[in-house]
Write a structure and sequence with these properties.
496 residues; mainly beta; Immunoglobulin-like; 3 domains; four-stranded antiparallel beta sheet
């Protein structure tokens, strides 16, 4: 089903990007044209390719389905100083409600300094102001997200006022752990000035997101967007990238085409404590360059800043499943840990256990092999405060048998006792013992049936001889692990 959606979506995006282009999207031609201007720095730095990549409060401006990807409460403020003393401010908030979805709120304010709209210098100046109040909702549904929003719009130019209600709808589909596509229809509704309907900038957006790099210290996302405005028949496309280093520093770049001015865009971001600060620069060859500045606050639960996060978070495939381990913070008292998982083709972390775990390792079973999971671990302090999350992306594989450990020999009155560590794995049915040659290769199997204990006594060995042994773990279907390292024994006879 997702493949069918993806093929149809790609055909639609190709039409937006490659079809005939008419009036430029940058032409502001309607009473609510301020809605076409995006004040947020993060999308602007990526060439406004944000329809599929959006995962914060800025999603209200592109695709309300992106709200479903918000995992903790957020507050945002964006300022955009446009040309001719026109400024845009955007205040927003998002509140997750668990499985019930995410509520988003936004307020856009745009205004100008007083100006004279006539050729008569004696005419009194007037000012213009636009406002939009936005209420949005997004919900995650397995491998896709849905969203919708409603806007109350008000425009004031001198003594003339216009009002109206508009709405947005959108979706986002995770077609692959590293690939997503999304689309939205924006500004559906009616707007009136002096009790007469005026044109509104209804448009459709479509976008792709690809994540070629996803590592604990480095991540890279690429995005491609296209949109079409019905009123002016204008098309716009944009492409961009976002790179994060250690989830602390971001670099962005993009290109916007089919607008009044095709241009490159650049941006950067930094995260510290609860805050993320973003900046974007976009040159206009005719009107001058523009700057955007955004501040995002993520409201964590508990006193996270007082508790260091766990370190050295690692994972490995083991006999029983996926083995995860981490190191506790060394500078803080920790009473336990919360474990989280972001399953393949989902966007939200969920808790793995209802209660904290006290160990610094865990083995997870029944995971889908060959698909990427992202795990998170948070330290818990004595007062219930939580650290920031340490994350690990890993692809589970089919459980493989590991060689036995602790393989050693002891002389006993009965002969030579070989012992090794006990294995609790249900995948291990027993062990095979081999005599090895001087090159360390298996020479002869010494047991007919798998040895079920973690020891065996060999009798009738000749004193003064050198013996070499290998040991393997055996699964129920007879599959063997790789052997241990050669155990060399200079046998001097039975012990006392």
């Amino acid at each position: 089903m997702r493949k069918i959606f993806l093929h149809l979506f790609l055909a639609f995006l190709f039409f937006l990007l490659m079809g005939p282009s008419f009036t430029a999207m940058g032409a502001l031609t309607s009473g609510t044209d301020f809605l076409l201007v995006v004040p947020s720095a993060r999308p602007a730095g990526m060439g406004q390719a944000f329809t599929a990549i959006g995962d914060d409060v800025d999603s209200l401006l592109y695709n309300p389905a992106g709200l479903a990807r918000v995992q903790i409460p957020e507050l945002g403020y964006d300022h955009y100083q446009f040309v001719s003393d026109i400024s845009f401010d955007y205040i927003s908030a998002a509140v997750p409600m668990g499985e019930q979805g995410v509520i988003g709120l936004g307020f856009i304010n745009s205004g100008t300094a007083p100006f004279n709209s006539t050729v008569d210098p004696n005419t009194p100046t007037v000012s213009a102001e636009d406002m939009a109040f936005i209420l949005g909702y997004g919900i995650p549904l397995d491998w896709f997200q849905l969203g919708a929003s409603v806007k109350y719009i008000q425009r004031q130019v001198g003594d003339v006022q216009g009002t109206g209600f508009l709405g947005d709808v959108g979706f986002r589909i995770r077609a692959h752990p590293r690939l997503a596509f999304a689309a939205s229809v924006q500004n559906l509704g009616m707007f009136q000035i002096l009790n007469e309907n005026t044109d509104i900038p209804t448009l459709v957006r479509a976008g792709l997101e690809w994540k070629p790099l996803s590592l604990p210290q480095h991540s890279l996302e690429l995005a491609l967007d296209g949109d079409y405005q019905f009123n002016s028949q204008a098309k716009r496309w944009g492409g961009g990238m976002e790179y994060w280093y250690q989830d602390l520093f971001a670099l962005r770049a993009g290109y916007v085409g089919n607008s009044d001015e095709e241009s490159l865009t650049v941006g950067a971001g930094v995260r510290f404590s609860y805050f993320q600060l973003d900046y974007a620069y976009e040159p206009f060859t005719v009107l001058g360059s523009t700057h955007r500045l955004s501040l995002l606050c993520k409201i964590e639960e508990g006193s996270r800043e007082e508790i260091p996060a766990p370190t050295a978070f690692q994972g490995a495939n083991s006999n029983d499943g996926l083995y995860l381990k981490w190191k506790p913070p060394t500078s803080a008292e920790v009473t336990g840990y919360y474990l989280f998982v972001k399953k393949p083709e989902t966007e939200v972390f969920t808790k793995l256990t209802a209660h904290p775990v006290t160990d610094t390792s865990v083995t997870l079973k029944h995971l889908k092999t060959g698909q990427e999971y992202t795990f998170g671990v948070e330290a818990i302090g004595p007062n219930g405060g939580q650290s920031l999350m340490t994350q690990l992306a890993i692809i589970p594989e089919e459980p493989t048998l590991s060689p036995p450990t602790g393989f050693q020999a002891q002389s006993v009155p009965e002969g030579l006792k070989l012992i090794w560590d006990k294995v609790e794995s249900k995948n291990v049915a027993g062990f095979n013992l081999y005599r090895a040659d001087e090159q360390g290769e298996q020479e002869k199997k010494l047991n007919q049936e798998p040895i079920t204990e973690n020891q065996v006594v060999l009798k009738k060995l000749k004193p003064g001889q050198t013996y070499r042994f290998l040991l393997t773990a055996v699964a129920g279907d007879g599959t063997e692990s790789s052997p241990t390292e050669v155990l060399r024994v200079d046998y001097n006879g039975p012990g006392k």
